[in-house]
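Write out structure tokens for Gamma-glutamyltransferase family protein.
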Amino acid sequence: MISFDSSYYPYPSQRMVTYGKNGMVATSQPLAAQAGLDILKKGGNAIDAAIATAACLTVVEPTSNGIGGDAFAIVWTKGELHGLNSSGPAPASISIEKLKERGIDEIPKFGFIPVTVPGAPGAWAELSERFGKLPLTEVLKPAITYARAGYPLSPTLAYFWERGVTAYSNVLKGEEFQSWFDTFAPGGKAPKAGDIWRSEGHATTLEAIAETNAKSFYSGELAEKIDAFSKKYNGFLTKEDLAAFKPEWVKPINVHYKGYDVWEIPPNGQGLVALMALNMLKDDEFKSRDDAETFHKQIEAMKLAFADGEKYITDETHMGTAVTDLLSDAYGKERRSLIGDTALQPTPGEPPKGGTVYLAAADGDGNMISYIQSNYMGFGSGLVVPGTGISLQNRGHNFSMNPEHENSLQPGKRTYHTIIPGFLTKGSTPIGPFGVMGGFMQPQGHMQVVMNTIDFGLNPQAALDAPRWQWMKDKQVLLEQSVPNHIASALSAKGHGIQVTHQSGSFGRGQIIWRDPVSGVLAGGTESRTDGSIAVY
């Protein structure tokens, strides 16, 4: 078990560490966490609980994810670590040339152009079939109930819902977007905190997915509805694209960091960025977390890792540079040598030749899962398949229109993906799942909570509550208002373009569950920057 003093609590928080023995579910929405716990109490395992929580989150936090999004997972069970990449590719009929024929030089954020094949329903079915104990019809019941009967919005959810409706009202102008407004802005406005929201279409879709193990979504009635909606508005996504999709089991990648192994999903995910940054700093000793030199080195390493990520990360089958080269000790040391006393302008290196909502779940038998799913940019593409509640993602926006770029748009190719689950082990012993959701903040959050845990001995809740930084671009760095003033001043003196903000919404929202290998006791933390909740027994 990671050594931390549960009484040491250096940062203000809404919560203390949560302990449990028989099961734990941590996520950003209390109703979803409780749904997962209910499944555990019905005899399900951690994987069943994660599926229940994930499906429920599409209902109770649609501002961040949906049935039409993607998913990734890292599963620990029976002494082994398994990775699942359930991100969908670009449609087979799309290409840079076809977009240019339409006068499109840059992939838009909204509408059908950026829509890729949704992977989340496939992830639920795949996880359930391989590792679950309960049938999907039982596991999805909580989500179906909340969709049909409705639930009251929590405060943070209401804030982001209002913000999303306001933003989408300004940019979504075609009739193809009307179903989105009918679904998420009934009566022409966003629901408020405490208001009841329900979606019968969402409920019937979840029932169809549960009863067919997602076959309806990829080759049945739901696939036909998605195909017809796409054809009506000249989209590229077809029922053939849906039928061709299957989640991929992958081997997680890792770096050894100060006695622990930090695991991520391989590209197309951006977990590689977090690992590259940690690889640069694994030989550094840090005096204190609240020290300008610590912040400076973290920021500089992350900038260099992002520069490499932007250049090299895409669908792994299309990468010209091997992951092992990017994570080699030699390349880590080479990139570390660029970090000096002042802020640098990040550029990619040349390695020697040789990718939201997050949840963590654990049960009393030692099974653990790190799971993440998203529509991207909040509500996604602005498209909801009429009558279904299926909000389609806009992941294709991350593709490059430059045919020479590693992440160039190509038919059937998966794009550079932001959502990443994390996992920590010590030798062959599992420590547990962790994650920080939030676009390109995610690898930055992963690095910070890992270092808070390993370098500074913070307990799971304190590791999440600690003030965060966020590299934006070039030398620009955003700091939470809770970062001490002396650190902000010292970073500014080192050449960082510092901006301090009281808005914490962009700094990610995370969860952690660590398991004591001797006692089996679970120690959990959940995000104080949102409506985060831990359900435990």
